[in-house]
Amino acid sequence: MSAPAQFFFAFLDCEFGGLDPELHDITEVAVIVTDYRLAELASGEWKIRARAERISAEAAQISGYTPEAWQGAPGVRQVLAEIAALLPKSGKVVPAGQNVRMDVMFLERAFKKCAIQNPFDYHVIDLATLFYAWSLIAGEPVSALSLRQAASQAGLIQGPVPHRAMSDARLTLETFRYYIARLAPLPPPELPPAAASTP
Q1: Is 119 a domain residue?
Q2: Could you tell me the residue range of the domain that residue 156 belongs to?
Q3: Backbone angles phi, psi at 177, to 5 degrees
Q4: What's the number of CA atoms in the CB half-sphere (13 Å) around residue 72?
Q5: pTM for this model (two decimals)
Q6: How far is the first Cα of the chain from the last one, in angstroms, to the nearest whole number?
Q7: How far apart are CA 96 and CA 175, in angstroms?
Q8: Each residue of 45-95: pLDDT tens digit?
């Protein structure tokens, strides 16, 4: 019998002042650490002191950011150090989440700018991919690959939910668990034939 996998997942969600890491700051981060079986090991959430000129009005409205609510929030360097301290010290920590490449892109830039070693593995696990795979196996066409669509289809939410880092990270983990539990071995779906190659 093989040894247990020496990797962990870090279910991430970040809120940003916009979608461009060169122009916008991270305003909030949440991390839920699990083992390879998705059992929760640790979690943390942080507001991050951000520059007002690097937060768009639209992003502030979506995430609930206000200068007053973020007053006294720690700087990004302190938050990155605390995130690194939260993670397991052995094995690989794989970022996981919904559209997690966006979160990883912002975090990678922040770790580099702060000259702190990035503690995350280069692999990522994305809920959208799992949701799409489930839709093929279950024969359930989906209209979108968003967290809201995946969680709604799973019956985990009804209507709007607050768009905050920890609530989104936890909803992503719960939705991930839901679809993993429903990927029981089934006959593969019938897919259209591949297009003939042109010589």
Answers
A1: yes
A2: 7-180
A3: -60, -40
A4: 2
A5: 0.88
A6: 47
A7: 12
A8: 999 999 889 999 999 988 889 999 999 999 999 999 999 999 999 999 999
